[in-house]
GMC oxidoreductase (Dichotomopilus funicola), 589 residues
Amino acid sequence: MKHFFGFPFLALALASASTTPDQSFDYIIVGAGTSGLVIANRLSEDPSVTVAVVEAGTDQRNNPNVTSTEFGSGLNSPLDWAYASVNQTHAGNRPFAMHAGKAWGGTSAINGMTYIRGNKAEFDVWETLGNPGWNWDSLFAYYKKSENYTVPTDSQLAAGATYQRQNHGFKGPLHVGYTPALENGSYAPLVIDTWATVGVAHNPDLNRGDVHGFGMGPQTLDPALNVRWDSATAYLHPVEGRSNLQVLRGTVKRITWADKAGKGKLVASGVEVVDENGESTTLGAKKEVVLSAGSLRSPPILEASGVGNSRTLKSLGITPQIDLPGVGENLIEQPAHILVFSGNLPSAASAYHAFLTAAQLFGDELPTIEAESRANLSHWAQAAADASGPGGPSTCALEKLLRYQHDLIFQQNITIAEVLLAIAPGGLLASNYWTLFPFSRGSVHLGSMDQINAPVIDPRLFLADLDLLTLVAAGKFVEKFWFSEPLKTQGDVDGPVISDGSGFTRNATDAEWRAYLQNTVIANSHPTGSASMLPRALGGVVDAELRVYGTANVRVVDASVIPTQVSGHLTATLYSLAERAADIIKGLV
């Protein structure tokens, strides 16, 4: 019982019959993941309040699949929810794996640990969309507050790591740095010269608010110990002795509501929690309930609580409490792909990230693609609205959001594709690449009250055909890179290495690329937007204080509130977002 911090009776209560008397806390946080543990840490700094975190996963601090800095060791393991989407009509009519962590630390316990933020304009648009105070400058302060950056060693600098000191924090809980294995890297000059050949400049620091070009991204790890530094390690383990903070095992089924209203708004009284045996109990919340279950879980919890599209709720036999059509909508997932080539280079721990613009991908075709895509925005918005069905997001609202995104890409020149390069054992040249800002919009919803662990996920990959066009262009750019000098000759590059019987070869036509990618694309597991921080008229679910519309004391703090995608990897931004959210809850912002 030691992990329940001095309250073993509550652990027993959650495992016992539903007749057990309720327990109450000031704050209940749903999910001990990347964002939830930041909130738990910061709220429990005040010894006068009590904080409970409810998490379906367990403490895995000694699990080598968590501590390992090798990406992929925790995927498709008991640490991974490994959700399956519905069959994707425009992507081979296949279901897709959607990875999410099931442990203390959530997805930060199984992800690739990459720490890259994004471009300034991508965050400034949050404020433009109606969220005062949410912009690059405000988030930058919290990036630095959370970060404990380790300056790369001379050997790591020689192997390709670069940084600018003013962009980093050095006193935060989250260790960020480079793996010690990087000190053995030797192919940096070769890669740098090849990127120059294809017209991509070196970026001295991918975390400065400008990711254009290529660089070596740091990771959320402790370089001295060579172990992953997830949110549990950073924000929970150091404070688990606080008597006012507890982590309780269970799955939150729904929010419970008080009979009284708060100034015409619903007041959460607590949450219903289900244990492994299906038994339920209720925990009371005297101040607030904070949902931090992630983009794929927070919306279904809201729906189970009567908050969402009234038509959807009634079809599930749920009495609507708040008609909020944006719940579970505006889901944005990045289509991704992997190409592997053969070569004659020693394996290396270093991984280069290249962020490319529409101009770099489309070249002379850019003006045509810009005009055609602008003309198609209303069509894509209508297609997303039709897929969501009656009572869902409006076509007008969706089109407005897509127009802002179009402006970011074609007027403000943000990056729209990422390429991640690595040299694997056996001389294999691995290239993972994805579309950063897809125009397709999907959804995630509760399937039934009896299947709370099986959300219905439909990212609708390639609903907007520009997303496929962008992925094709990125794939062709990857091929161009590997077959450019000096890498092509010195690395003895050949391939691609294809073993799926598709017959896909180098110098394929655009039609062959499209057919191949539709049947081999994967989801990037970077879902955002399903409980968007937007005005209610635009399909928003939470306001600028992350409070759910129509409620007095329910907030959402996780990737679901991010209304757009970002060029960086989500982890870095989630720490910053949660740090700022904690200050909002505490009345400091």
Remarks:
- Confidence is low (pLDDT under 50) at residues 1-21.
